[in-house]
Amino acid sequence: MWSLGAASSVRPAGMANSMAKCGARLGGSSGVGDAGDGDEVRARRSPNGRKLQNNVLGVSVLAIYLVLVFSLNVALVEGKHHHHHQNSGGVGGGHEEFKFDPTNSFISLVLPHDTYPGYSIQKFSANFTGPNSPFASISSYSSKPLNYRLLETDYSKYFTVLEDGMVMTTADLSPLVNRPVKLVVLEETPNSTATHQLQLYVMNRKDMLHFPTMLADTVGELGEDREAGTRVRDLPLLQANSARGAKTVIYTIVAGGEEFALESSSTGEVGSTVRIEEPRKHGVWLVSAKPLDREQKDEYTVVVEASDVKKINKAQVRLPVRVTDVNDNRPVFGKPDYRFTVTGVKATTPAGNETITWERFTSLGKVEAKDADGDKVAYRLTNPSNTVVIVPQTGELLLAGEPDMSELFVDVEAHDLRTPSLKSERPARVLIEFVAPDPLPVIVQHMGHEYQHSHRRDKRRVTRAVRPTKRIEFTEADGDTEGRNVFQLEKETDRETFKIRDENPWVTVETNGAVRVKKKWDYEELGPEKTIDFWVIITNQGHNARKWVERKTIVVVVVEMKSCANFFIQSLFETSDDAVVQLNAPPNTPVFTLQARDPDTDHNIHYFIVRDRTGGRFEVDERSGVVRTRGTDLFQLDMEYVLYVKAEDQNGKVDDRRFQSTPEERLSIVGGKRAPQFYMPSYEAEIPENQKKDSDIISVKAKSFADREIRYTLKAQGQGAGTFNIGPTSGIVKLAKELDFEDLRQPHVYSLVVTATEDSGGFSTSVELTIRVTDVNDNAPKFELPDYQAHNVDEDIPLGTSILKVKAMDADSGANAEIEYLVSDDHFAVDSNGIIVNNKQLDADNNNAYYEFVVTAKDKGEPAKTGTATVRVYTKNKNDEEPKFSQQVYTPNVDENAGPNTLVTTVVASDKDGDNVRFGFVGGGTSSGQFVIEEITGVIRLHSKAISLDRDKYELNVTAMDDGSCCVNGDATIHTSTAVVVVFITDVNDNKPVFKDCGTYYPKVEEGAPNGSPVIKVQATDEDKGVNGQVKYSIVQQPNQKGTKFTVDEETGEVSTNKVFDREGDDGKFVSVTVKATDQGEPSLEGVCSFTVEITDVNDNPPLFDRQMRASARTSFAYRHPTRMQTTTVP
Asked: Which Pfam families match (predicted)?
């Protein structure tokens, strides 16, 4: 219902779209009434007190406003409707700036009734520089308007417009509740004017729809692969309502994709839009519309909108939904084959030979598999190897022993750590190459270099010039059918194909050149040029694989069909009374307003009186349509004055002499008086039960058309007499006594009648007043029990299993008594009925066998009140845990000469269920080769028989098995886990170095050779390994010998002279040498080698005569043959 005094074509949001473009009837409005259906109405009231019609004369201010509006010649078009959002504070629009657009100058907003004065609603600004602006012809003035002002209406006192175009509230909007309000902002420049139109709809905030605030923190979960129609877990029943209760709510998914739907809790209907009757009892569930795949998308945000039937009152809620994982993916290796290369370390043996050694536990490389479910992955070798082991947790391959070949192939299998576990569909093949530390051959490097290059083949492509633009003219009717072939593009050759370059909303282009209608053409929606422009790409596949690509612009000019005549709309009031003129109305008194609307954007409407049956008593403003009185003669009581009128669009010519126009319409005006009229057909108010006595509740006022004082009276219908009173002259209704909502003797709804009577025996009229008393939230919810307990709950129950039910009551009424439940532990969830279910898998092992949390009952009052209770859930243990080793790989060391029963290591495993753990070897039993394991302790020893540790390492696969002693029937499910024990055999220094070739050493050195001359290279070997087999050399000094005549290199065994020898001197012909070899063990062992070095003669002495020679001979003989010395004198 539009308010008193509004005189324009404004409608509630959505109403204008329901009007047909052609053929509506002529209507209009007096100051407060409606001309009805236009039928002739004769005088029906006598001067002796018969009641006149409810329509009266228009207000002069209203007439001025209409003159301004209709003289601007600015097209009125439908506007966008901005609905409120529950998180927006209830007010649409905010400070958003609205750019002037002549094709869309009308916007609608919803405001709550308690919007404070000074709130900024909408800012308007004009764009003078745009080609489509109504001010485009203005070039000599500033680009900004000189002034904004609000045209005067009955609503003007509630709003104002600032100099910068900002519209603000100036008063309490409560009187405008449930009434559409239209404001017109006049924008002025030195020689032009324009208008901005703003439609507002004021609602009581308690009538505004809203979702529960708890949904803001709620996250739903849905298992992947679940069938369509599965409800999203953890999301309660979605119920949007207002504080006073809505009758019907329509729920729609407005964002979030096609993966979800809504299910009605009352009918079971499933769809993207669901209608709910009795929204306080029923709502919608969010369900899946198809199976989801977590690996493609693991989280969604679904936006659900609730609205009333008229789509004015709206609220939205954003619902995050997580897709939970199901083990439906096997681990997949990053590549099927791996190739790793390990380079040895060059070393030289004591004999001088080069050898290659391999460092134990060298990392060879790493294989990697990924599980699309996000599970952790473990690795194992399909066939154990003495050379390579794999770390199960990381996939890293380690060198465990000396390789005995240049390359090795192993297969690695991956499995996820889920129960039940999935393994890779096929193992990864790993090639390990053991190479020398020399650089790669040049040819290999060259091949690698060549491999980095690839041949490139360039395709030749020729682009020709753009073809001439094609311009075609069609009418709007040519594009009225989607899919229609409008025209065909011409081909220059048969090899040409066509493709539209950019997507166009109006047309599509097929490869054969057919241009089809994509969307029905609407002349009013096209741009200012009224054309459909698009580029076409033309591809010509010529001979010899040569391709030409050309472009062409297509311009479709759409011509408007002027076939739709103007039509009139009805007046503002829904009554069917005639227009009324006061008997003593002076000249130029507005009586009625004619209003016509043309769907064309370039209309120019004029109003005319075609036939005047009143004798010239009335005239009509050609541009505004306002019907006014003429002359000073009095009008006669109950006399009917008839005018025939029509409207013409002077921009829509039919021929050279005629314009498009409406049919003639009959307007009936009756002379007489009328009773006072209230500003609204009925009044409603809502007050809380704690409203203060004598406080103002509502103002109920009427207008006297005889300019007399009005007195007001109030009467209760049914219960409630004396509860309220009314100011006799002010019309303000006040509370006369205190209220109590819980008092059953007091009604919650009071039906009252307010009567307005003119002084001095004038007319009177009455209106209904309904006052509703609302409950105040002054009671908190209370649980039936202070604490709740659930016993013997299996820890492996499925998710969503009902565990127990709690219940709370609230002494209040309505929304104040509606309760929602919350829990403090995310292992659990609770629905609106108080049923508690498990939200996560329970675990009796990590939580001392019970869960304790708080459940909260929260009412829906404002502000909400809460009550709490304690919940304990005692879980029953299940044998659902496998034993866990302290480490996955054990690497102990054992001496090679270890005897029977020698301790090797101790493996440790524990079971979270509390089961006893027993150890063994894979395959069963407690012995494996020369090793045994103690079943209870996990101690691994050598067996008690003869021991022969002749390998570098031994790999043992041990198991840990629980016995199910933790719980009843626990032994029905036995769990086993495995670990790897790699026993490395440590060498013992039990072999001394040996000079195997000592008996063959007969070195010689010339006398006189310089100091440091090489003599011989000795070599000793040690059968031990590692440092125990490393040998160092030294010279053993002879007894009673000063210094050493020889030296030896301790690493290589090279023996060299340590002096210059003289065969004829003290050194003699032979010299003895002893070399010692010492290993590096602890303690070290030694070996020696003694041999004789012959000093070879060099001719280094001159001949001697006589006595010199004989003396020399004796000396030489004695020196060389000391045992043959005789006591003989030479003569």
From this structure: Cadherin
